[in-house]
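Record type: ASSEMBLY
Status: queued
Input:
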Amino acid sequence: MDLVLFGMQGSGKGTQSKAIAEHCNLVIFETGAELRRLSSEDSELAQKVKAIIESGNLVPTEVVMEIITDFLHKLPAGKNALFDGIPRSDDQKEQFDALMTKEGRSFKGLLIELTEAEAVKRLTTRRMCPTCKTIFPAAYEKETCEHDGSTLITRQDDTPRRHSRAPRHLPSKDRSSDRSLQSRRKNAHRERRTAHRKSDSRYSRGP
Ligand SMILES: [Zn+2]
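Status: finished
Output:
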């Protein structure tokens, strides 16, 4: 059984996907990482992807599906996948469903639920290392990168304005206005448990 993880930006999806993948022994599919992997290859698909990226265009859904197929075919026998951030549109969803059926793979969707206010809070307290680009969650207390000692910065694209829209089914009540680091960490833990528990069938609750 493969997993498809959903959650708005700021939901900690990347962190959760790593934790779940480790716990359940899954291989993560994340489009950005796959594109980087392909860029070091010399396959026909890699050439195609390179040409698209160099032209400045977005990678079309058809090619994303080819990348997923390539990924699935390279999965060790008996290994399952965790899809992080894919499918991200109705168009992708349809083609993803068809692809998974064709490849004979069953999967479940997993939604990380949190309020928009919580997501914004998490985004604005998330910091990045300007040197190695590692992202540190709110719970990371040091001011410097654990890898190279650089002083951490708040990411430019993580300002709340950019994330003011939330899915309609999520309540917008702000329960996070005076959270301390510690309770935020506790919350991250609760969220992780939620992620494990909220195992909905396919896309019934996806964005
Ligand atoms: Zn660093």
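Annotation: The chain has one domain: 2-200.
Annotation: Residues 162-186, 189-207 have pLDDT under 50 and may be disordered.
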